[in-house]
């Protein structure tokens, strides 16, 4: 909710400004039909690739603290949020703990995740899913609800990364 593009770009900037995290690549920004709770506005979704020496759980804590910085405008419980940051993959690891599951358990059924992911990593392998990502996307029903909203080369990367 709110100025979605601004929240996304500010979040990426905060991630990149963290001493232990380096943003390597970003996808285009996609406008996507809401999945699950459908009686809400469309989402903007994107995927980024980072390099980090943080452990997965430390990475989650960083992302949650950034989410909290942006969560002030939440007005409806379980309703639309300003920002949601998920870890999709971490190297080729499989992690199952109470706080963190990697690969993200619902990523392989979500076009709003897989299409931006495919844009930046065409050959990515999702541990536990024995299919190329392009094949998974082709079989998904919800891919029609995902369209490019702002091309990657239209995103102001300098505004993101200049301090
Ligand atoms: N890979 C992951 N990335 C982010 N959070 C995760 C992951 N695996 C488990 N979690 C847990 O999920 C919780 C996030 O729940 P949240 O309310 O944001 O879910 P959601 O974003 O609404 O739904 P979804 O998880 O289906 O996208 C966090 O508290 C975190 O502990
Ligand atoms: N299109 C879209 N739908 C969603 C999304 C999302 O990021 N994009 N996130 C959800 C919960 O995390 C639920 N539904």
TrEMBL record:
Pfam families: HPPK (PF01288). This is 2-amino-4-hydroxy-6-hydroxymethyldihydropteridine diphosphokinase. SUPFAM superfamilies: 6-hydroxymethyl-7,8-dihydropterin pyrophosphokinase, HPPK. The keyword Transport does not apply. Its EC number is 2.7.6.3. GO terms for molecular function: 2-amino-4-hydroxy-6-hydroxymethyldihydropteridine diphosphokinase activity. Keywords: ATP-binding, Folate biosynthesis, Kinase, Nucleotide-binding, Transferase. It catalyses: 6-hydroxymethyl-7,8-dihydropterin + ATP = (7,8-dihydropterin-6-yl)methyl diphosphate + AMP + H(+). The lineage of its organism: Bacteria, Bacillati, Bacillota, Bacilli, Bacillales. It is an enzyme of class 2 (transferase). The keyword Transferase applies. Residues 77-88 form the 7,8-dihydro-6-hydroxymethylpterin-pyrophosphokinase domain. InterPro entries: Hppk, Hppk_sf.
